[in-house]
Amino acid sequence: MEKQKDLYMKRILLLIIVMLALFLRLYDVGKVPAGIHRDEESHGYNAFSLLNTGKDRYGESFPILFRSFGSYQPPLYTYLAVIPIKLFGNTIQSVRLVSVFFGTALVLITFFFAQNLFKSKYKDGLSLVFALIIAISPIFIYFSRLVAEGNLGVTIFVASMLFFLVSLRKSKLFILGSFLLALSTHAYYSERIIAVIFLPLFLLIYKNYFLKNKTPVIIGATVFMIMMLPHLWIATSGALTRRLIEVGYGNDKIFFLEFIKRYLIYSSPSNIFFDLGPSLNRVSPGLGPFYMIFIAPFFLGIKYLKYFIDKEKIKLLLLLIIISPIPASLTGDSYYPLRALDQLWLVALVISVGFIGFTRVNLPSKIIVITLCFILLHSLATFYVSYFVLFKYEAAPYYGNAYVSLMSNLRNYKDSKIIIDSGRDPGIGLRMAYLTAYNPLDLQHKLRAQLKSPYYSGEVELYEDYDLGRIQIRAINWYQDIYKEQIIIGDTLAISDQQAEEHHLKLEFELTDLSNATKLRGFSTNPLAKCQSLDRRLIWESKCQGILY
Amino acid sequence: MNALDRVNHFWVEVILCIFVLLLFVNGIDENLFIKNDVEKIQTYQRSEYFSKELGIFYRRPPIKYYLSDFEVVATKYFAKIRRSFDLENYFSSKLSYLLIPLIFLGGYNYLKNIGKEQLILVIILIFLLGFTKSTDLFGVSVFYLPVAYFSILGSLRIWKNKKIYI
C-alpha cells in the first residue's frame, strides 16, 4: 500500500516537472527570442521546400547535409521540421516546435536514465531532482526555445545512453542504443565525434559482459555502421569537414597545446555557472549555462558521486565525463555552450547528486525543504528577469527582429518594387522567403543558378541575392538602383542621411526593433530629381538618358 | 581507509581563511559600487525594458532603484568571482598542463574527503574574494595555493600509502 502511494506520488511529481519544462519551453516561443536567426529560417525554409517539392532550397533532392550560409547544417532537424510546418504553416513558432518537443522529451528521458543509473535506495529522489534540473536550467531552456540542432542531438544521445545502460542487463537493447547513437550523428556535429569514440570504448570497458552476449553487439555494430554510411558517402567532398575547418584552430596553433587549453575552458566552472558576457555566446544576460547558485551542489555532487552509483555503472559515467568535452575542445571559439550540451547534461547529473547530498546534512528536514523551494523559486525568478525581459530586448538585433516587423509594413507598398539591403546580414532574404512562404520551385531555380561549386563542397558562399518577385534582397547598387522608381530599405549604415540627401531619396518609414538598436528606414527613389541634379557630362555616363530624354 | 583519506584538511581551511582576510587588508574593491557611464546607460535602458514588461510592479521607485543598482553591483561582483573558477588561471603556463591529471586527481580527492560544512566554508571564502581588490600579487597568488595543494594530494593519491598530515 505504502509502495503504491510512493509510486503514485513519483508519477505525479514527474508529471509536474514535465509540464513545467513544457511551459518554460513553449511560453511565448514565437516572441522570445524576438525574431528569427538565419540558421532557424534555413531549417524552416528547407523543410517547407522539402514538404512541397522533395528538394531543398537549392533544388537538391533529400540532402545528406543541407548547404546553408557558408557551411552545412546536419539534416535531422530539417526533416523533422516538415511536420510542424505542415501543421502550423511558415511561422517562427512552428520551426522551433521540434526543439521544444525534444527539449521536453530530454527531461523525461533523463528521468528514466537516472532510474537505471543510481542505486535503488536513492534513485527515485535523484531521478526527480535530475529531471527538474534539466527542466529549469537556463542552458536547456534556452536551446529548447531555439532551432538548435545540438538540442536535438543531446536528446537522442541521452536516449542512446539510456539503452546502453539498460543493455548491461538486457543485452538486446544494445541494438537500439547503437541505432540511436548513430542517429544522433545526423542531428549534430558534436555527437559525430563522441559517438565514434564512445562505442568502441564502451565495448572495451564492458568486454567481459558483451563477450558473453555477442549477437546483439554484432547486430548493433552493423546497424551503427550502416547508419554512418551517408557520412562516408560525402567524406571526400569537403562538405563533411567544412564546419570543422570553419570553426577549427587555424594552422598557426600547436594542436596538442590548443586542445588542452580548450578542454580546460570547457571544464571551467567559470564558464558553466557564470555569465559568459556579451562577447562569449552568453546564454542570457547575467546567466551562465546553469544558475550560479548551483555551483555549491556541483562541488558537493563530485564528492558524493560514487556513493550513489554502482561501481560498474560509474565506469560508463566516467567515460562520458572524459569524452564529452572533446568535440567542443576541437573548435577554436572561446566558449560555445551548444557544442558542449552533452557535457552540460552530465554537469546537471552531478548537480542533482549534490542536491541529494545536501539533504544528508544534519539539518531539520523543514529547513532543507524550505532551502530547496527557495532555490527553485529563486532560479525561476532569475530566469524570468534575465530571459523574458533582458534577453528579449537585448538579443532582438541578433534575431533580425526589425525585419520581421518590416513584413507587415511592406503591405502598404503592394504596387512598388522593393530593394532590401543585405550587405551585413546574409539571412534577410531567406527570412522573407520563409515568412512569406515564397514559391520553393522558383527560389530553387534562382539559388541553384548562383552556386559556384558543387552542392557538396568545401567551398560554400555566404552571401546570395534573393529575388522574390517585386522584392529583391541584395546589396544596394548605388549606380543603378537610384535611377529606378522603387523603395530602398536598409539600416542607417546602409543608407546614411548624407546618401539620402545626395540621391534625392524620400523617407517613407522608419522601423526599430525592440531594443531600438536596429533602425530600418525605407526610402522612395526619385530618378527624375536625381538626374536633373546631375552635371550634363555625368548624365551621359549614368542611367539618365531614358529618364530625361 | 588509506592514509590519504585521513589527511586532515582542517589546516587548509585555516590557511585559506587567513589568506582571504589578508586580501581584505588591501581594502574592498570600491569600483563594484561605482557606476561608470556605460553602466549608467545600460541601467537606464534596462529600467525601460523592466518598465515595459513588469508595468506597475516596476514603476514604484524603491523597487526600480533597488533592482537597477543591485543588478550592476551583482554583475560586476560575479564577473570578479568568475575568475576564481576559471581553470585557465590555475594553469597559466603551458608547462603546468603536464600537471593537469595530478591536479584533477588531487582536486577530486580533496572534494571526496572533506566534510560538507568545510566545503561550504571554502565556497563562502571564494565568494568573499569577489569583494577584494584582486589586481595585486595577493589576488594572483590565490590560484597558486590550491594548485600546489592539489598537486601534492594528486601525487599522494598515486603513492597512496604514504602518510601526510598538513
From TrEMBL, chain A:
Residues 73-233 form the Glycosyltransferase RgtA/B/C/D-like domain. GO terms for cellular component: plasma membrane. The keyword NAD does not apply. The keyword ATP-binding does not apply. Its main location: membrane. It is found in: Cell membrane. The chain crosses the membrane at residues 12-30, 94-114, 126-144, 150-166, 173-188, 194-210, 217-234, 286-305, 317-338, 344-361, 368-390. GO terms for biological process: lipopolysaccharide biosynthetic process. Pfam families: PMT_2. It comes from the Bacteria. GO terms for molecular function: pentosyltransferase activity. It is a multi-pass membrane protein. Keywords: Cell membrane, Glycosyltransferase, Membrane, Transferase, Transmembrane, Transmembrane helix. This is Glycosyltransferase RgtA/B/C/D-like domain-containing protein.
Automatic annotation (TrEMBL), chain B:
The keyword Transmembrane applies. The chain crosses the membrane at residues 7-28, 95-111, 118-135, 141-159. It comes from the Bacteria. Keywords: Membrane, Transmembrane, Transmembrane helix. This is Uncharacterized protein. It comes from Candidatus Daviesbacteria bacterium RIFCSPLOWO2_01_FULL_40_24.
